[in-house]
Amino acid sequence: MSASHILPLLPQLASVAAHTHALGFAYEGLEGDRVRIRVPWREDLVGDPETGVLAGGLVTTLLDHVGGLAVWTALDRFEPIATLDLRVDYMRAARPRADLIAEARCYRLTHSIAFVRAWAFEETPDDPVAAAQSAYILNSNGERGIGANLQSRGGDDA
After folding, report:
1. pLDDT at 48 (0 to 100)
2. Pairing of strands 26-31, 34-39
3. Which one of 23, 117, 133, 145 counts the least CB within 10 Å of its CB?
4. pLDDT tens digits for 75-115?
5. What pLDDT score was predicted for residue 16?
6. 113 vs 27, 131, 136, CA distance in Å?
7. Would you say 54 and 77 are in contact if contact means Cβ atoms under 8 Å apart?
8. Cβ atoms 146, 127 nearer than 8 A
9. Cα(87)–Cα(85) distance, rounded to whole angstroms?
10. What number of other Cβ atoms are within 10 A of residue 74's Cβ?
């Protein structure tokens, strides 16, 4: 798969939104069909001050966002998408005071839905903090227009 059209945009797409910029998300790279981003550990992102572990909501946001990047990589273009379904399985607590990395790949594209798997980890995806399974709706008009689902597909329906 070639990511020739989207590749120059990935660093911006990883961190340009207000919330991703505020959280410090940074593009790490693309290897094959897997896109990777990082969130550096910061005290203001900690969920429990006693442990120094990053907040669970941050992990969910990280996995959702890297999933969207994986969809755009698979499409080889930017187009509006929305998270349709996101399941996150937390497997262990993150290490205290450690950056988190998230990696995702879009493993199936249909006309209107993209399916993604993602992992959050400190060093290797073989030891995940959390794993996600998600679906994103594609907002491409393609051959669809507003109300296309309401129009007759030929023949007389009356």
Report:
1. 85
2. antiparallel
3. 145
4. 999 999 999 999 999 999 899 999 999 999 999 999 999 99
5. 87
6. 24, 20, 6
7. no
8. no
9. 7
10. 21
> What are the residue ranges in the chain where pLDDT is below 50?
1-3, 148-149, 157-158
Q: Which DSSP string corresponds to 110-133?
A: -SSEEEEEEEEESS-TTS-SEEEE
Which position has the token pair 């227009």? Answer: 145
Place of tokens 């290490």: 95
Q: 76: which 2 tokens?
A: 């080889």
Write out the two tokens for 137: 């709706």
Residue 92, both tokens: 């262990």
96's tokens: 């205290």
Q: CA 116, 57, 13: angle at the middle one, nearest 5? A: 50
Structure tokens at 32: 């094959």
